[in-house]
Design brief:
The chain has 121 residues and is α+β, with helices and mostly antiparallel strands. It has two helices and seven strands; from the N terminus they run αββββαβββ. It folds into two domains: 30 residues; 88 residues, Beta Barrel (OB fold (Dihydrolipoamide Acetyltransferase, E2P)), CATH 2.40.50.140. The longest helix has 24 residues. 14% of the residues are buried.
């Protein structure tokens, strides 16, 4: 049988664990859908059909154009460009998650990991 002090310690541990779980789910950063109002460096997601995919001539980076976006999706070489290029094809529906960025005065979504590109069909 547990002593009074042991019961108090168990209750405190349970409360601490529950607090951590609530904090994790309550304060976890949510990803919003991309829009023209999205801020630079904001992590967003977008879904659409691949209109084109192209490896850059220099650097082996990947640029994807989606049907419903007016921005390019950019996947750097070190963030899985080749892996994603081999995974997807024109006409595929995908969901991408990335950070809003500016390149040559144009907005783009920069993918940070190949796991941020998910096939929908």
């Amino acid at each position: 049988m547990m002593q009074k002090e042991e019961k108090i310690v168990v209750v405190l541990l349970v409360v601490a664990v529950l607090s951590l779980i609530i904090a994790y789910f309550g304060f976890a950063q949510q990803t919003n859908a991309y829009s023209s109002d999205s801020k630079i460096d904001e992590r967003v997601y977008a879904e659409g059909t691949i209109l084109s995919k192209q490896m850059t001539g220099k650097g082996d980076n990947l640029i994807i154009k989606l049907s419903n976006l007016n921005v390019n999706v950019f996947i750097p070489k070190n963030n899985g460009a080749r892996e994603v290029y081999d995974l997807v094809k024109t006409g595929d529906g995908i969901r991408i998650t990335g950070k809003v960025s500016i390149y040559m005065d144009e907005r783009e979504l920069v993918v940070e990991s190949p796991k941020d590109v998910v096939l929908l069909n």
